[in-house]
Amino acid sequence: MPGYLNDRPCASLGTLAVALLAGFSGCGAPQLRVEDAVLAPNDKATLRAYAEHSVAGFLRGGEQGLKVHFLLDGQEVGHARTNLDGKAELKCRLPRETPRVVEVVTSLAGKRAQARGNVYVWRKDRPIVLVDVDATISETDYLELTFAPADHSSRPIKNAAETLHELSNDFYIAYY
Are 75 and 94 in contact (CB under 8 A)? Predict the structure, then answer.
């Protein structure tokens, strides 16, 4: 039964404590993610996937020992097992030098899980510009971004998109 504060219904301290413990002490559902890979022509690709679950609401814990299959353009190129941190890593040569999609597939909690990423092949002689999204492309409201269900306050920086598009004529652009 809810308590009352200033004649308005409110949750009791016990209810809040149980909700906080449930939200912050338990493990969330496992999930699979894959990193994009960037490599030079004729280099070996290092493909990485992570099988993780949330711990304490915001920290991540790894799922160890899972067999992760790596596919390029739908064709399996190999598999690897996840380590203690939940990371599976596969080194392989790409069949050709065009960008492609990497897909990873495994079984998490008895269900098929998959994730997709990109593989980029970039020439060694073309410079790369690393762009931090915050304060370069976006005026980010960190509090709202971190704690609110949706970020409605962050705004794009004027002319940032056009400037980066122009730079992409001469540079590779990598966002972080």
Answer: no
Where the chain has pLDDT below 70, the residues are 1-28, 56-59, 96-99
- Alpha helices by DSSP H, listed for the chain, are 13-25, 142-147, 160-167
Cβ distance 106 to 81 under 8 Å? no
Residue count (the chain): 176
**Residue 23's pLDDT is what?**
47
Which strands sit side by side in the sheet containing 75-81, from one edge to the other? 37-39, 111-121, 100-108, 67-72, 75-81
Rounded Cα distance, 157 and 155, in Å: 6
Measured CA to CA, the distance from residue 10 to residue 1 in angstroms comes to: 9
Q: What pLDDT score does 19 carry? A: 42
Of the chain, the end-to-end C-alpha distance in Å amounts to: 47
The tokens describing 110, both together, are: 């008895």
Cα 86 from chain centroid (whole Å): 14
d(CA 165, CA 168): 5
Check if the beta carbon of residue 102 is closer than 8 Å to that of residue 70.
yes
Strands 87-93 and 8-10: unpaired
Place of tokens 């992760």: 68
List the beta bridge partners of residue 60. 54
